[in-house]
Specification:
Elements: H1 16-20, E1 27-33, H2 38-47, H3 53-72, E2 76-79, H4 84-90, H5 94-106, E3 115-117, H6 129-137, E4 140-142, E5 151-159, H7 163-174, E6 179-187
Parallel strand pairs: 1-6, 2-5, 5-6
Antiparallel strand pairs: 3-4
Helix pairs in contact: 3-5
The chain binds zinc ion.
């Protein structure tokens, strides 16, 4: 009912993770579980210049969740940004590729410039869960001229703990956005 992760039994409304954490976003959904062949496909999309996969994912998202997104009524689609150093190295932000395609199909404006990542969050693996969260909380920012809208749909490739989506949601809500939703290609297997 929150992150969209499949749960063991129908009576269970929230996954184990969502029962423990108060998420900052409102609702979200993912297309597939993060396992093969999905994980391989996303890897190619992210690291091996298979940008073309973006239109396939976006089409699948529109078919699976177009009606739900319409109900959410997002005013803007915002891809989760990469730090500019990383984007330069990779040549593109895979979330932006996906977000732009989705926006085109669903007819929703895409803003891929207002939100940015100000801290390189690479040494994440060396940090504990709490430090990682703290680090991420400061990682995102909005440009001064961003005008808040009632609802934003975030787009990213993978949802794991939700820390990233939460961090971005917090930034948006602080600026006056009321509802934040997300769509990702895959989601980690939970409980
Ligand atoms: Zn959950």
């Amino acid at each position: 009912m929150r992150c969209g992760k499949p749960v063991r039994c129908e009576e269970q409304e929230y996954c184990y993770d969502c029962m423990q954490v108060r998420h900052r976003y409102d609702r979200g959904l993912s297309l597939w579980l993060h396992r093969k062949p999905v994980s391989t496909s996303i890897y190619q999309f992210k690291y091996h210049n298979q940008r073309v996969y973006g239109s396939f994912y976006a089409k699948e998202m529109a078919v699976a969740y177009g009606r739900i997104v319409k109900r959410w009524k997002p005013d803007l689609i915002m891809p989760v940004p990469l730090h500019k150093e990383r984007r330069r190295k990779r040549g593109y932000n895979q979330a932006a590729v996906l977000g732009r395609e989705l926006g085109r199909i669903l007819g929703i404006p895409v803003d891929d410039t207002s939100l940015f990542r100000r801290i390189h969050t690479d040494p994440q693996k060396a940090l504990g869960r709490q430090d990682r969260k703290k680090n991420l909380r400061r990682a995102f920012a909005l440009k001064e001229d961003f005008r808040p809208v009632p609802a934003v749909l975030l787009v990213d490739d993978i949802y794991t703990t939700g820390n990233t989506i939460d961090a971005v949601s917090e930034v948006l809500k602080k600026k006056g956005v009321e509802k934040v939703y997300f769509l990702t290609i895959s989601i980690g297997q939970g409980y």
